[in-house]
Specification:
The protein is an alpha/beta fold. It has 5 domains: 7-140, Alpha-Beta Complex (tt1808, chain A), CATH 3.90.1570.30; 147-368, Rossmann fold, CATH 3.40.50; 374-385 and 429-576, Rossmann fold (3-Layer(aba) Sandwich); 731-833, no CATH class; 839-916.
Length: 918
């Protein structure tokens, strides 16, 4: 192609190249060779309305047309759809054809496609042209995918939550309306992945979908998704999903032809499309930790191994962080329906999915439905956390290398003043960490009353090194061994998966410390406490981190790992040691690319393919400055990790990528080898090759080394300043929320005091409360669950714990908790008191009063009375007939009691019913 081509010819040359890439051979109408390829695109083929720009033939059968336009006429592609349709319905010369179903409009840069077999044919943008074998496969089916979607049967709702039913039904309606993108917003813990697997199963079974891509953005999430696919059993088949359909989690660039579901990180798929080797460490980085955005991502080009029609549907997990810039190209590449899953969408997420939100299920709704649990905030504040500290000149301090943890003793040349934000990055103050951990330990009886072991706790640390410091101090302050507290990060020496499994399923570890591995997307249901020792500026990321605690878990399952619990999980607690709940949050990650960007983020930006000159120059300057501080040994280590490149060579490559003279020299060499390329094309290719050379140096291991070797010269251990706790209490908002909940509960009981038998007695005839039965209390509980699920008894008990110091506020079950609450609201008890403690106290008083005179109960009689007391603690009232059942029948039933108490038996029962309920 020459530089003076007209726009029409230039557009057709681009179209020809794209057709060739997609498996078509382009031929002139007077030079047709059907043996050249399965798919032949014939230029200027005659129809009865004039020559069509291209007619597409598959195995000698006409199947479609392409209407070509000049490059500058991209805005006119939809305007010429009528013209395209006319060609598609016209009669081709020499052929007896009907309507041609597959129609394109293209200018070589932009292409639109319409499948006229669809119920309501609608054009859509496509990255390139479909392959000939694809059209052959499509035509073998009686109906198009979009027509098959219309016949998906009604959803069987067994085993599905209401929010899941709503999401699936609305999504399928969106498919039927041929809406290309849809967003499912569901609160963390409400079953997004289960929902996705359910609709994927239905698409494969009922819509005969060919293949579905399930995209995640960390390897950990991919492994978790694979486990859920393997465990899934549909409600209309007793076989597991993986027994019905092939599921492949991509561990290499190979995609099995017979897989119907592919699970992959978006990083891996980008590398597959680019035909590049993947640095697998990039699959471990949580995108929410990244503070850069590529300005000009390296463009994806057509890959014949993976055509644009490879997947009918693409599901994007945690889509709020994986649909932008670099990664968006992966999504734009496929001619597929896109379905996003997230708990925390932002404005950009809504925009990307065309504001087609098929399901909105908020955290508040999930709490109301009992799908998630509530949380409260407990604040720990120390003086140094808030204000920082100062180390005077000439003090001796430790300086520590993060990788080896090696220390050296050094005298400060000048005063060092640091603030709270520098803690655990530039300066480590062991006393600050110790005071936070000690306050947490000492306040646990207040935060989790009645526990004999530490609730499962997840600590969020700033860095891997910070995590190590926290672990050491936690073990010391709690007086425990290695098993008690473990690190769960990608860099942990122990296998992070096995540690995570133990944290989820075993008694130990009680405390896990992480940086980002389980900050999002990982399910640890027994988790009851999140200790934040790092701040988070992203609103979405903070919501995701909070989501680790929202999972519900039943009593029996929770008791397996936390034996002292007395109920199912009712809430979790955020212990805020850094002001994370009060700091300003943004909707998205910062977009800074120049000054103020951390070295870690510059390294990540270049590694991941950002193409901003300022980033490359900034990184070059930082490395050049660092090189002046390195020892010879450190420079040698750098070269080993950079495949032999020195720091200076690396700096030179970064600067060359945007050096006009170097680019021009490179372009001249390319032009010599490929003279058919235009001047502009060779310049673009020259710069791209130089950029590729510069960024190919950087890997996860090298980046980690650079980041850590830099810190060896900067991190100071402050053992001079001793910290102290200035505040350790429930957050004011938590107390206000507790007061609101308690007051609403009081109002509800007042309103219904004359409608429910048990409430009538407690409010209007408290002297009759000895007559309150198990079924009466159960009636109140069932009404609450139906009308006001937010008034869950355990949640209300927790609210009272924050408002008043009660007498043993840990209820044994929901019914006894409810009795304690009703007694507190009706002011029978001055503070909330566990009902079994009330019964124990009243029993002691009754026995003492009975034996104050000549009456003395013998040991057999006392054992029987204690058995009655325990029964009333859980069932509230004893009838004569109850003596014929458990537990009394095993001890001889009513006959044995009569033998022990004689004619006084009925009197004893009546007195105990009245006394114990006092």
């Amino acid at each position: 192609m020459s530089d003076n081509q007209n726009p029409e010819q230039e557009a057709r040359d681009k179209i020809d190249r794209k057709l060739n890439d997609s498996g078509w051979v382009v031929q002139k109408r007077n030079q047709i060779d059907w043996n050249a390829s399965r798919g032949v695109a014939v230029r200027e083929y005659w129809t009865d309305v004039g020559p069509s720009d291209y007619v597409l033939f598959v195995e000698k059968v006409a199947v479609g047309i392409i209407e070509a336009k000049k490059a500058e006429e991209g805005h006119k592609l939809t305007v010429v759809e009528e013209q395209s349709a006319e060609y598609a319905t016209s009669k081709l010369k020499f052929l007896d054809n009907g309507r041609l179903p597959f129609v394109y409009e293209s200018n070589g840069e932009l292409t639109r496609f319409t499948d006229y077999r669809d119920p309501k044919p609608r054009s859509r943008p496509v990255f390139s042209f479909h392959r000939p074998e694809t059209f052959r496969t499509w035509l073998k089916k009686e109906r198009s995918l979009r027509e098959r979607l219309l016949d998906i049967p009604g959803l069987g709702t067994k085993g599905l939550r209401d929010c899941q039913v709503k999401a699936i039904m609305n999504l399928e309606n969106s498919f039927k309306d041929n809406r290309p993108r849809a967003l499912i917003q569901m609160a963390t813990g409400s079953g997004k992945t289960y929902t996705a697997i359910t609709f994927i199963y239905r698409l494969l079974k009922y819509a005969d979908a060919k293949k579905v891509l399930f995209l995640v953005d960390t390897r950990n999430l991919g492994e978790q998704a694979e486990q859920e696919f393997m465990a899934y059993v549909p409600n209309d088949d007793n076989r597991k999903f993986t027994e019905l359909y092939n599921v492949q989690r991509l561990r290499s660039n190979y995609i099995a032809s017979d897989s119907q579901v592919c699970i992959s990180t978006i990083q891996r798929f980008y590398s597959i499309l680019k035909d590049e080797e993947l640095d697998e460490e990039t699959e471990e980085e949580n995108p929410a930790e990244r503070k850069w955005q590529p300005k000009e991502p390296i463009p994806v080009v057509y890959n014949e191994k993976i055509p644009i029609e490879e997947f009918d549907f693409v599901v994007i997990d945690e889509c709020h962080r994986s649909i932008y810039n670099l990664w968006q190209q992966v999504l734009d590449y496929f001619d597929s329906f896109l379905i996003g899953l997230t708990a925390t969408p932002d404005k950009r997420t809504f925009g990307f999915f065309n504001e087609n939100v098929v399901s909105e299920y908020s955290y508040e709704e999930a709490v109301a439905d009992g799908v998630n649990v509530i949380y409260d905030v407990y604040t720990i504040e120390t003086e140094i956390t808030k204000n920082g500290a100062q180390i005077r000149a000439r003090e001796f301090v430790d300086k520590r290398e993060k990788l080896s943890r090696r220390k050296r003793w050094e005298q400060l040349d000048e005063d060092l003043i640091y603030n709270g934000k520098q803690l655990d990055r530039d300066v480590v103050n062991p006393s600050q960490i110790r005071n936070v951990i000690r306050a947490f330990r000492d306040k646990l009886p207040e935060i989790f009353p009645g526990r004999s072991e530490i609730p499962k706790t997840l600590v969020f640390a700033k860095t891997d090194s910070h995590a190590d410091d926290i672990i050491q101090i936690v073990r010391e302050e709690f007086g425990e061994g290695n098993a008690f507290c473990k690190k769960v990060t990608y860099k942990a020496e122990d296998d992070p998966k096995s540690v995570l499994a133990a944290f989820r399923n075993d008694y130990n570890p009680r405390i896990a410390v992480t940086v980002d591995m389980i900050a999002t997307g990982t399910d640890v249901k027994p988790l009851e406490c999140l200790l934040f020792m790092r701040d988070v500026r992203s609103r979405n990321y903070f919501e995701q981190m909070k989501g680790r605690g929202t999972r519900t878990i039943e009593y029996d399952d929770l008791k397996k790992v936390t034996p002292s619990v007395v109920s199912a999980k009712t809430h979790f607690v955020i212990v805020d040691a850094v002001g994370v709940t009060k700091s300003m949050k943004t909707d998205s990650r910062p977009l800074e690319r120049k000054k103020g960007v951390a070295l870690k983020d510059l390294l990540a930006a270049v590694t991941f393919g950002a193409q901003d000159e300022d980033l490359y120059v900034s990184l070059a300057n930082r490395l050049a400055r660092l090189n002046r501080q390195l020892t010879d040994e450190e420079r040698d280590n750098f070269a080993q990790k950079a495949d032999g490149k020195t720091v200076n060579q690396t700096v030179r490559d970064l600067l060359n990528a945007y050096n006009p003279d170097i680019i021009e020299t490179k372009a001249f060499d390319i032009k010599q080898r490929q003279p058919e390329m235009t001047e502009s094309q060779v310049k673009v290719q020259a710069q791209q090759e130089l950029i590729d050379v510069a960024r190919s140096t950087f890997t996860g291991k090298l980046n980690e080394y650079i980041e850590n070797v830099r810190r060896v010269h900067e991190q100071i251990i402050d053992t001079v300043n001793i910290d102290n706790v200035t505040r350790a209490e429930w957050d004011k908002d938590a107390v206000a929320n507790a007061e609101e909940l308690v007051n609403d509960f009081k109002t509800y009981l007042e309103v219904h005091r004359d409608e429910i038998t048990a409430l009538k007695i407690f409010y209007n005839q408290p002297f009759r409360r000895r007559e309150v039965t198990f079924n009466m209390i159960k009636e109140v509980l069932e009404k609450l669950k139906m009308e006001k699920p937010q008034f869950a008894p355990f949640r209300l008990c927790h609210a009272y714990e924050q408002l008043e110091k009660g007498n043993g506020n840990s209820p044994k079950n929901e019914l006894t908790a409810l009795v304690s609450l009703i007694r507190r609201v009706t002011e029978i008890d001055p503070v909330l008191t566990a009902y079994d403690l009330t019964v124990n106290r009243n029993f002691q008083d009754w026995v003492f009063s009975k034996q104050a005179g000549t009456l003395k109960f013998n040991e057999d009689q006392m054992n029987w009375l204690r058995m009655i007391k325990d029964y009333v603690s859980n069932s509230f009232h004893l009838e004569i007939d109850d003596l014929d059942y458990t537990p009394f029948d095993a001890m001889g039933g009513r006959g044995k009691m009569y033998q022990l108490f004689g004619d006084e038996m009925n009197v004893i029962i009546s007195e105990l019913n009245e006394a114990l309920a006092a």
